[in-house]
Write a structure and sequence with these properties.
heterodimer, A: 234 residues, alpha/beta, 4-stranded antiparallel beta sheet, globular, B: 295 residues, mainly alpha, two-stranded antiparallel sheet, 4 strands, 74% helix
């Protein structure tokens, strides 16, 4: 279980997270929705050690990993597919994936992960030796998710996987997220596209200006008047 | 004609050794977007270490090996002690730049202390190990051949390391996106340390090769040669490995032809004349990538 308790983060004088608590249980897809600047990415960045946590706790299966160096987070079994994809543009698709397996030593395991990623994203297999910078936005998103799977994580954190993609590609990415979850992956999904996020998640948290304003069953939240009004455009 | 061919051959040998120094600028620039102005002084340090251990009767090859390790360590330590703290604080680029200039002064001046090596020129052991070859009225010294062959082999090894090894892959990944590299588990500081070590070590080898040819060293020699190699890195396109080789060769051949026909005073400025001309034609250097902006 990934458990966050009373997390506070500051950017200089700005209080970005004001006591955020959330839990992701094994096997779940949990989504964190909210408008721009609500603190969604900051929450992920706090978990992965990219921003410093002022107070509060990040625990992974009972182990305290608050403020661990970000290059060590992946060794704890957490993998982040960052907002804006952040692939290595000059490296080939294969090299990008190889970098994803950076912390893995077992050759057989790496080979299996390659196979798994290529099974999920056949498009990537067609483009193994192409520089990542020349891929389309959708393909880069696949590569970012694929790269984050290469470290055999227990927890996958996805930051805005639908950003900047055409509707049919969004549809496709989300069905792949469900597919990855069915294979046993625990997923924390950050999305502005609340509609899609709530449709694949089992539980959801709504962030508003650095606080959790609502939480609960995703299907129920999708029916909640406040959520409908603020995030679902109803 | 043979004078021309002679200066071209001379230039190719020197240019290959310049490439060994240039690659140190290029690798560090690739990863940190920083020009390491202390690199020339590490080249001088490397030459002095060879001089020291040969004087201590260690033998030429062992002396080079010890010098390579010590120079790599010096470059590594310079980053750890002076630059890494700046990175932790998120300092401005200008702070890094002036720090490397400062380190350069410290190294040069420590070398010139009377109690260390003194500021006068010293005789450096010759790498003219098996005489010279005569073709017609053209003479090629074995020190030139050794310089070229050794530098070429080292550049090939370096290319292999950067393109085919896991460390090289992570160097390229850090170069392109440090944040993403960290997220997949790369200890970025360790990659930076390795890069500085590699740059320092190759500068030391260049120090042994170039000065084994000229047979003379002085503590301040790193300044001129460092700037020339930096010019070579920029001519080829800084951050690009094979650019350093081509840049080194262009600068080396250019300066030898200039020295042959225009006099030896023209030798050192020639690198910069070439640099200016090439930058006017190709602002990113011969093989430079577009979009590298921060200096």
């Amino acid at each position: 279980m990934l458990k966050i308790t009373d997390l506070n983060v500051f950017y200089g004088p700005i209080h970005a997270l004001k006591g955020v608590s959330l839990e992701v249980n094994n096997g779940e897809i949990v989504t964190l929705i909210g408008s721009n600047g609500a603190g969604k990415s900051t929450t992920l960045n706090a978990i992965t050690g990219i921003v410093k946590v002022a107070s509060g706790k990040v625990e992974l299966d009972g182990q305290d990993i608050t403020n661990a160096a970000s290059h060590k987070i992946v060794q704890h079994g957490i993998s982040l597919s960052p907002e804006g994809r952040e692939v290595f543009p000059g490296l080939t698709v294969e090299e990008n994936l190889r970098m994803g397996a950076y912390t893995r030593q077992n050759k057989q395991e790496i080979a299996q992960n390659f196979e798994r990623v290529y099974d999920l994203f056949p498009r990537l297999k067609e483009r193994v030796s192409q520089p990542a910078g020349t891929l389309s936005g959708g393909e880069q998103q696949m590569l970012a998710i694929g790269r984050s799977l290469m470290s055999s994580p227990k927890y996958l954190l996805l930051d805005e996987p639908s950003m900047g993609l055409a509707p049919n590609l969004v549809q496709m990415i989300f069905s792949l997220i469900e597919e990855i979850n069915k294979q046993g992956m625990t997923i924390l999904l950050i999305e502005q596209n609340a509609n899609m996020a709530l449709s694949v998640a089992s539980r959801a948290y709504v962030l508003e200006t650095g606080r959790v304003s609502l939480s609960g069953d995703a299907a129920q939240l999708a029916q909640d008047e406040r959520v409908k009004k603020a995030y679902l455009g109803a | 004609m043979s004078a021309f061919v002679g200066s071209v051959i001379n230039g190719i040998a020197l240019g290959m050794a310049y490439a060994l120094i240039a690659v140190g600028y290029s690798l560090v620039f690739g990863i940190l977007r920083l020009i390491n102005f202390a690199h020339g002084s590490i080249y001088a340090f490397g030459a002095y270490m060879v001089f020291l251990f040969v004087t201590l009767k260690l033998g030429f090859l062992p002396a080079i090996i010890v010098s390579v390790i010590l120079s790599g360590l010096l470059a590594f330590l310079m980053d750890k002690v002076t630059l890494e703290p700046l990175r932790k604080k998120g300092s401005d680029t200008i702070a890094y730049l002036i720090t490397t200039v400062g380190v350069s002064f410290v190294i040069t001046n420590v070398l010139s202390l009377e109690a260390v090596f003194g500021s006068q020129r010293r005789l450096f052991p010759s790498t003219n190990l098996f005489g010279s070859i005569r073709i017609g009225n053209l003479t090629i010294q074995s020190s030139q051949i050794i310089m070229f062959v050794a530098a070429l082999i080292l550049m090939l090894i370096m290319t292999y390391v950067v393109n085919k090894t896991k460390m090289g892959l992570s160097m390229r990944a850090v170069e392109q996106n440090g944040r993403a590299a960290r997220l997949v588990g790369v200890n970025v500081n360790r990659v930076i340390s390795f890069t500085f070590f590699l740059g320092g070590a190759s500068a030391a080898i260049a120090g042994a090769l170039i000065n084994g040819y000229y047979q003379s060293i002085s503590p301040t020699m790193g300044t001129t040669i460092g700037l020339k190699a930096f010019a070579a890195a920029v001519v080829g396109g800084i951050g690009v490995l094979h650019g350093s080789v081509v840049g080194g060769l262009v600068v080396g051949v250019g300066e030898c032809i200039a020295a042959q026909y225009l006099g030896s005073n023209v030798r050192d400025p020639m690198a910069f004349v070439i640099l200016i001309i090439i930058l006017i034609i190709k602002p990113n250097g011969l093989f430079g990538k577009k979009g590298i902006t921060k200096v």
